Amino acid sequence: MSGFMTNESRETATDKRTKQLLHYLDLAMDPKVGLESAVDNFAAELLRGLDYDNEDRIIFIRHAIPFLICGENSNAQTDVCVMDDNEILLLLQEDKRLTSMKDPEPQVIAEAIAAFAMNNMTRERQLNLQPRDIITFPALTMVGTTPAFYKVTVTAALSKAVQTGTYPEVETCVFRYIPTLPRRSSEGMRPLPNRLEILRCLEAFKKFLGN
Which one, of 180, 176, 177, 206, lies nearest residue 193 by Cα? Predict the structure, then answer.
């Protein structure tokens, strides 16, 4: 990632990996018709570059998670997620309000609730383990190439309330952190000062994987 941290554009990059990541950044900053998934691809490549994947974890694009809501079967569609053989560990949702009018924040929270149920189903049916009563998911939303960071804690009671369509008895708190960037947030990761601050935050956020 050193080249990505020191080269603002592809013109000055000297190695293949940096040129490719900057190419993904270019497309994500100005997606064209037919390349609507540019932000998702950039985010996935960025997480790989920061070693969010390892020998056991992978970065997956467009994972549909079965979701029971108010007694009806549905799916929660992630844009990007980090997963291992058994569990979803992190969720990422792009802001698509320019095309679909959907706010990414409630979407990523819904995905966390769906992932809670799916992770526990895997534990019970495949691993013969007890389901967890509480799971905290690290999550990201992306407005262009500018992320916001979340910790979404899902409980068994919340999951059941969503499945049955009842009002949860206990309030759910979602923690959000929006980085303060040296340049305008609308410039995303294009300027190097913004890029370095976002990379610093992403590196620190990695510690919440699997907790």
Answer: 180
* CA triple 57-42-37, angle to 5 deg: 105
- On whether residue 16 sits in a domain, the answer given is no
How many structural domains is the chain composed of?
A: 1
Question: What's the rounded Cα separation, in Å, for the pair 200 and 195?
Answer: 9
Tokens linked to 100: 């679909």
182 domain residue, yes or no: yes
Asked if 3 and 18 touch (Cβ cutoff 8 Å), the reply is: yes
Give the range of the structural domain holding residue 80, as residue numbers without chain letter.
40-208
Q: In this predicted model, what pLDDT tens digit does every residue of 171-206 receive, in sequence order?
A: 889 999 999 999 999 999 999 999 999 999 999 999
Which are the contacts of 148, defined by CB distance < 8 A and separation ≥ 6?
A: 105, 140, 141, 176, 177, 178, 179
For residue 15, being part of any structural domain is answered with: no
